[in-house]
Amino acid sequence: MGDCAAKRPGADIPLPPPYHGIHASPPRDGHKRINWMKPTNRSDRVRVRRHTCECKATIYELCAAGGLLFIRRTTRGKKVEIRETERLVATRMEELWVRLLSGEVH
């Protein structure tokens, strides 16, 4: 068997550099508004498929639950505010995700 540094006791395993994720672009002039709603908690399990970088006060997550997708927006500050979009089939929500990242919608 090959030698694996991870299996040797006391081996220094180098860690990957910190990941700096994608950022949503600022809203463009004439952008369309997303209807952000209070979370409904209608799913017992939600899987985050993609997310924006956590270095900003507002982060976005593309979430999957019950065969549908939605976007969750978390705004951090003195008070944390969470909002979600409606739930749509994958094709439509992935398109909205790309438009959000490009600043076409906000």
Describe this structure in words.
With 106 residues, the protein is α+β, with helices and mostly antiparallel strands. It is 12% helix and 24% strand. The protein has a domain at 34-106. A four-stranded antiparallel sheet has the order 1-2-3-4, covered by helices on one side. Strand 3 (68-75) and strand 4 form a beta hairpin. The longest helix is centred in the last third of the chain and has 13 residues, at 90-102. The protein is globular, with a radius of gyration of 18 Å. The N and C termini lie far apart (53 Å). Residues 1-6 have low confidence and may be disordered.
Termini gap: 53 Å
Please report the number of helical segments.
1
- As a percent range, the share of strand residues is 15-25%
Order of helices and strands: EEEEH
Apparent shape: globular
With strands numbered from the N-terminus, the spatial order across the biggest sheet is: 1-2-3-4
Q: Please mark out the parts with pLDDT under 50 across 5 or more consecutive residues, or reply none.
A: 1-6
User: What is the residue-averaged pLDDT?
Assistant: 89
Question: What does the largest sheet look like?
Answer: 4 strands, antiparallel
Q: Radius of gyration over alpha carbons? A: 18 Å
Q: Structural class per helix/strand content? A: alpha+beta
Number of strands: 4
Report the helical percentage.
10-25%
What is this entry, summarized?
The chain is of the alpha+beta class and 106 residues long. The protein has one helix at residues 90-102, and strands at residues 47-51, 58-65, 68-75, 81-84. The protein has 1 helix and 4 strands, in the order E-E-E-E-H.
